[in-house]
């Protein structure tokens, strides 16, 4: 009962978060501003958006190829098409249940290539380790290149908040911080979060060691760099879809990209959270909420459309191959 409740929460909470962020995002806009956002979406140059979708597709193909090297290291003869079916289906599953794509991939290659689920999951976790390291490096670079703007933004925000707050409100803030600290301490103790973090870090270490000791590590690393280069190109090319973002600085681009990547990683494919985080990041760099929101939705909708189309094709191919094998 408890496990079923937790599984249900894992599905519903990210979805609820996305809906909540959409609601609070659009409640801040007037009717005229909503029409302006709609205008950006309609009048966007979809040639650049289509090119961005092509770059994303190339990254998915490279991911399927990269996976072959890891599977080969286990003595398994991989099939590129089956890898692609598993990856495309996994991305689509992530839109429904966050982080379910990994298990879906492992289950599909178990059906298609008779790869044990635990070994399939092990290879997927190892690749996620390297992807996580790359994302952290991009995020650190983004923060370093935009440190002045980020610091000034939060300094101005805090100064404004404290200037408007009276002594009673400041007391409430202090009490709230103390309560939050007590709750955080209780959660860490109750759910042994410290131990879980230690296990997670050990998993990262083991995954990275697996990659580093494999036979074709340089090809694997080259594909990893290509995948993330395609992600960045996909995001970069979309700034030319609307005129107000076509001169976006590298620091703004990297910060928005990093925010969007974390949104995708921890929600239903970034539903609600992706445009919300990107718009708020771009505000730091002088863009309006209207422009930032429009840009965020353009990128998210185009990439989600690709995932849905690719997922449907991969599900259909998987079903067809399964029927063919049984007949």
TrEMBL record:
Pfam families according to UniProt: LPG_synthase_TM (PF03706)
Membrane topology: Multi-pass membrane protein
Keyword Transmembrane helix: yes
Gene Ontology CC: plasma membrane
Keywords tagged on the record: Cell membrane, Membrane, Transmembrane, Transmembrane helix
InterPro entries tied to this protein: L-PG_synthase/AglD
Membrane-spanning parts: 12-29, 41-61, 129-150, 170-188, 218-242, 248-266, 273-291, 297-320
Location(s) in or outside the cell: Cell membrane
UniProt organism field: Nonlabens ponticola
Name used for this protein in its record: Flippase-like domain-containing protein
């Amino acid at each position: 009962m408890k496990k079923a409740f937790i599984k249900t929460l894992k599905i519903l909470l990210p979805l609820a978060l996305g809906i909540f962020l959409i609601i609070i995002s659009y409640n801040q806009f007037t009717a005229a501003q909503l029409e302006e956002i709609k205008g950006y979406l309609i009048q966007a140059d979809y040639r650049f958006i289509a090119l961005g979708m092509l770059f994303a597709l190339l990254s998915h193909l490279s991911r399927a190829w990269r996976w072959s090297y890891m599977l080969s290291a286990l003595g398994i003869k991989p099939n590129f098409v089956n890898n692609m079916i598993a990856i495309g289906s996994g991305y689509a599953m992530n839109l429904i249940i966050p982080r379910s794509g990994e298990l879906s991939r492992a289950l599909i290659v178990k059906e298609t290539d008779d790869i044990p689920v635990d070994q399939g999951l092990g290879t997927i976790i190892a690749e996620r380790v390297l992807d996580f390291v790359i994302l952290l490096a991009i995020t650190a670079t983004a923060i370093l290149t935009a440190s002045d703007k980020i610091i000034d933004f939060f300094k101005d925000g805090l100064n404004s908040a404290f200037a408007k707050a009276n002594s009673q409100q400041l007391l409430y803030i202090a009490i709230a911080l103390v309560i939050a600290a007590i709750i955080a301490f209780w959660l860490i103790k109750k759910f042994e979060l410290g131990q879980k973090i230690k296990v997670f870090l050990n998993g990262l270490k083991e995954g990275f060691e697996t990659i580093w000791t494999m036979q074709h590590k340089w090809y694997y690393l080259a594909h990893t760099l290509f995948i993330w280069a395609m992600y960045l190109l996909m995001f970069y090319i979309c700034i030319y879809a609307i005129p107000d973002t076509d001169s976006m600085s590298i620091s703004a681009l990297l910060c928005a990209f990093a925010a969007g990547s974390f949104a995708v990683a921890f929600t239903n494919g970034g539903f609600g959270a992706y445009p919300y985080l990107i718009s708020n990041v771009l505000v730091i760099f002088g863009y309006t909420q209207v422009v930032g929101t429009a840009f965020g939705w353009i990128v998210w909708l185009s990439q989600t459309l690709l995932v849905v189309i690719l997922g449907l094709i991969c599900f259909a191919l998987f079903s067809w191959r399964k029927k063919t094998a049984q007949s």
